[in-house]
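Appendix B. Chain record.
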Amino acid sequence: MNNEQLLDLVRQMTLEEKTAQLLQLTANFYEGTNVEGQITGPMEEMGITEQSVDASGSILGLSGAQAIIDVQQAYMQKSRLGIPLLFMADVVHGFKTIFPIPLAIGCSWDTELAEKSAEIAARESAVSGLHVTFAPMVDLVRDPRWGRVMETTGEDPYLNSLFAAAFVRGYQGDSLKGEPDRLAACVKHFAAYGAAEGGRDYNTVDMSERNLREYYLPAYKAALDAGVEMVMTSFNTVDGIPASGNEKLMRGILRDEWGFDGVLISDWASIREMIAHGAAEDDREAAYRAIRAGVDMEMMTPCYVHHLPELIESGEVDEKLIDEAVLRILQLKEKLGLFDNPLRAADPEREREIVFSKEHRQVSYELATKSAVLLKNDDSVLPLQPDANVALIGPFAQSPDILGWWSCEGVKEDAVKLGTALQERLTGGKVQFAQGSNVHTITAEQIAEALEVASKADLIVLALGEDSEMSGEGGSRTDIRLPAAQLELVKQLKAAGKPIASVIFNGRPLDLHGVIDESDAVLEAWFPGSEGGAAIADVLTGGVNPSARLTMSFPQSVGQIPVYYNHFNTGRPLNPEKTEERYVSKYIDSPNEPLLPFGYGLSYTSFSYGDLEVSSNEMTTEESLSIQVHVTNTGERAGVETVQLYVRDVTGEVVRPMRELKGYVKLALAPGESGTATFTLNEEQLRYHHSDLSYRSDRGEFHILVGANSRDTQKKSFRLV
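Structure tokens predicted for this chain:
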């Protein structure tokens, strides 16, 4: 259908049909889903009529090709105007083939592989009947107490923007209609959900508009520039107004300023939640505020279907707002080709061939190897030698709980376990197992068994971490250390006097005290996905040389949070050489710096940096600077070094961060080989939002900082003239 035909379709719809088209419900409202308690119970609970269900526009959370075919066909038989359903789901880091959590994917610094993971997730989802994924989540995060940091790619707006665009390209491809194995992407959560106070989910967000634009909005804009079809509102307030009713944010910035003309959907029940926020008296006012803000689709509350007709009849809401929303939804359905083929790519036979295929799992494996960050490796304890006699101890030694919170259709039992994979690789050695502890509890018998197994080994590999329920949505924590039971296990095994290599499976940066000092080596595995055990085993045994770099700082303790690399200097900065000074910005019981900085990660080889070379000590608006540094692999193994470029604007109209990431180059070098990391820096990259929100640069002095992470850098200066 062309746009005029879609407009004609809108004109044929009754007001009730139009408002129903804005309603999104879960699968148990629909015939053919075989969900226990379908239709009657949920309809009564929400006050939804059968007519509203029959005319509704989209369905949430159903998957499986045959199930979706059945529901779509039953729905189309009842649809007066032949308008098909949209099927949506949270395909966050894989459908059935589960990839590492997005925070881990960020640590790969590999946007091409991230794009590939989204493409595979789309292929598996589309053949299983889905049309839209609620991904990518691009919220900038600085507080690891928040459980949903596992869904983001980190604390840097530049890097988050690169990954946001990559995920959108992977999900959507070049043409949704021409490529039915793709999904429409929905960027979330607009906006600033990652800045929830205290790291507590759904909590208040309060910041200046300048801060919002400088750090939190860029990744959403990058997703829009990449062509994302949908945007999801966030649960939080923005400048005191819940996002789902925030006209300035949704119509002012998203629609008018950025020109977004796709579908805007509320997060689960967030329109009705305006009442709890104190921004709406009842469902009627919530509907009024949301439609005026430009929210097209209401997820799982009935405010629109119950109250938009009367708001239009009373003249409080112009019907054209509903027409615009319906048209945008119909346009998305047309882009997906649903009017031509309501079943789209859903195909049970192809589903069996494609979903969880060997090819897809291989990409999951590769991404997991590139996402594991080596945090410590004293005395080259890792990699394990082929003939090593290893005691593998801990609650994650043979745990399948390595997929993470948002694992969609992933099955834990399908995940490759670390112990099984390690046994297969140490063909000349031996792996002996002990549970050691559970995730949260430990017994004297478990300790005794662990010590017995450790006494017979040359080296201990400790498999520790959070279970998947400890992060993700609703998974906020005030104590981000490992559970006490696991810390006790580490303490007991440390006394055994054997080298310890700890592997951590988790969904957030942790306070690693009680582990990192007691271990000779620490490997951050995150939740690595379906092939996680195989990938981590290959990193431990040296089949893969780790190359990942942190995209969130690891704190010394919760008391430091938020701690992030691109902070301000303050008026009384701490001089590292005068730590005894009192009246400076510092803690008296902790360093200011994080335990592990943004960009940090080790390798099984070593790299040396030559002198930093800059083409000029002046930059103009017309001429860029060329920046080079030579890097040599000084070790005995091939490896990848991620050379990072940071810039500091020394004096600005608004205070500027101590450093900001502006680029990176990955150099793959053989032993003894040298390579050159070359960067181009121009005036546009020096711009920022001033106090009047204008986006421009300031003349004056700048520092160029290049190195292996945000802390360990070389510096040169130039002036923008």
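Further analysis of this model is presented in Appendix C.
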